[in-house]
Amino acid sequence: MIIKNGHIFTTQGRFLEADVKLEGDRIAQIAPAGTLNEEGEEVIDAAGKYVTPGFVDIHIHGAAGSDFCDATTEDVIKISRYEGSQGVTTFLGTTMAFDEEILTGVFEAAKPRFHQDGEGAVLRGVNMEGPFFNKAKKGAQAEKYIVDPDFAMFQRLYERSGKNIRLIDVAPELPGALYFIRRASKMCTVSIAHTCATYEEAKAAFANGATHTTHLFNAMPAFTHRAPGVIGAAADDASHVEMISDGIHLHPSVVRAAFAMFGPDRICLISDSMRAAGMPNGEYSLGGQKVIMNDGKATLEDGTIAGSATCLAECFRRAVKFGVPLEVALKAATINPAQAVGLFDEVGSITAGKRADVLILNKETLQPETIFIGGVKQ
Known about the structure:
Layout: E1 2-9, E2 15-23, E3 26-32, E4 43-45, E5 49-53, E6 55-60, E7 62-63, E8 66-67, H1 73-86, E9 88-94, H2 100-110, E10 122-128, H3 151-160, E11 165-170, H4 177-184, E12 189-192, H5 199-207, E13 212-213, H6 229-237, E14 240-244, H7 252-262, E15 267-270, E16 282-286, E17 289-294, E18 297-300, H8 312-321, H9 326-333, H10 335-340, E19 358-362, E20 368-373, E21 376-377
Parallel strand pairs: 1-4, 1-5, 6-9, 9-10, 10-11, 11-12, 12-13, 13-14, 14-15
Antiparallel strand pairs: 1-2, 2-3, 5-19, 7-8, 16-17, 17-18, 19-20, 20-21
Helix pairs in contact: 5-6, 8-9
């Protein structure tokens, strides 16, 4: 398969007119436009279109009526199919605050789907969001399951997942948190989340091995001129931060300001979507709690925002609509998240030797016209 004459999004975060050759599940070659030998090859002319990596969503709870924590292989497949149809080609199944028994069941059910092709987006690991949170910033997490950081519990779950936990969240001000961060950071990416941490407490977390911050601005203290809190510490020290650019969790001005503060290399756009994504208005659930979705906004009965109902592909388009430069938003939905969780050797860019997870986007709408996952046209 040769995709010719497209505007290829490069690892430098720029577009370059070029040809791309796919062989099997790999990107085999990238060459100047019009130079690849087309003899015997299927050819797609992508002139006037963008050719980009597939989107990488490192924080997604569910979609299409299913949740990762429903703990069935069938539900994981439903999420994969929906995400793949939207142009998301890699994702981390994200948990909620639950006890060890429930989380063990979730990970056991997911095991057959880790790194498996053939059903849309590929599940490449777990984002363990909870239960090591500050109850005062629980958001839509169920308080009855929230506990102080417990490294022994995490280690057991890490093994039960087949060592597939790639991201673990923790509130750094809790008892034992710094010890937890020092140990867990040797196994996966550690993120600050659902926290009341001061600037100093967050700085201590980064000094002890945390590198990431979960859904920036949400479930953490506000950034103010005398108390910069987690956001200020992350601006100083975090390798990456997440942001939900659905226009509901954050005002468009805040989205623009965050990119100005953190630059093009550190923000990871995420969906944080729950099972209502891709579904009509109605009642759903998240973490065992009732959720009402109305016109794209998902909330608990008390009005607390309960994740999003927006796919990462749409969050990317909205970021561009809000004024984020196209190349910057695209990097935040592909290269940066893949780097944040240690997947960049395999996915996240149009690079020879990497997975053939490739999108051809309409230049006007930024909608995918053609989607390849592992070299297979969807």
